[in-house]
Amino acid sequence: MMRRSISAVAAAGVALAALVPAVAADAAAPAWRTVQSNAKADYFGVAAVNSKNVWVVGRVSAKPHAWRFDGKRWIDTKLPTAFQKNTLLYTVAGSASNNVWVFAAHGASTYALRWNGSKWTVAHAWKSTWEVGGAVVNGPKDVWVHGSENGGFKFGTWHYNGRSWSRVKPGFRMAAGASVSSKNMWAVGDNGAAKPSPVARHWNGKSLSTVKLPALPVVGGHPAELRTVAARSSSDVWIAGARYVNPANYATLPMALHFDGKSWRRFDPPTKNDIVSMAQDGKGGVWAATYSELFHVTKGHWAKVALPTVKGKATRVGQLSHVPGGTSVWATGRFVWDGADTSTGAIFRY
């Protein structure tokens, strides 16, 4: 696996080529399928640590759950007693079977729960009710968690070094991250200013450095936003975000950037819907999801992929997670009745 220091990345030439390809069918690809559905469930975060450790967090009839798929069956792991009710599990991330983290809201605090391979323990608590947006776990001594757009990112961006948690200094407000290894993490967000500008950072295991990006669209004083990222190596990184087309009503269109180790190119998706999650496909491409669509991107070519369906319902996709070392990908989502405020939670697998 090729790795480049951020100094080399920042010094690399930046080329921008806006491409808007037509939608094509991905007929040769194996199909996505529904592996779990429950009319009383909401499935939120998903983390594929390996083929025998796929985690999903959510709730059933308002009761929180953290499920683990061991390669054959789903196991409903036991949460600490205090968190078995009146708790919202935001997100899950992990680096090994004995190093999985869940971030949860309970009472007037946000908690970090850690799975050691056999049980959950409370690892940390913040006196904060601001929503958590996501987390990246590079190893037992390298964990990142950040706030969500819904909460105005007010939770902040935090890093755990194996001993303590520290808040990332002003100047970077993380919206998403993707880990290649403990010394190669990519993150996107903004600079946290009153009028924020898009920012990408790279973590080399010791420090965060700014990644030089191409000039991004600014419309009516509103710069583009970077919202999600997927990385296979330092020469294969995807970033997706949104560019404003009418700031008066906050109308945006999605955009995507790819870094090949030397330069960035822009490959805008053939959709009007925002990209909410991305995951590598394990063979040089990437999966990209809007809430109502799923795309497979290979060599900059966007192919719309059929989602599992249920008669009379629309399919929605939330988070994506790639299984390391293979081509399998997992996703959380739901089936929604057309015109009704009810849904069936679903877990999908490719």
Automatic annotation (TrEMBL):
Signal peptide start-end: 1-24
Keywords annotated in UniProt: Signal
Keyword Signal in annotation: yes
InterPro entries named among the record's database cross-references: Gal_Oxase/kelch_b-propeller (IPR011043), WD40/YVTN_repeat-like_dom_sf (IPR015943)
Record's protein name: Uncharacterized protein
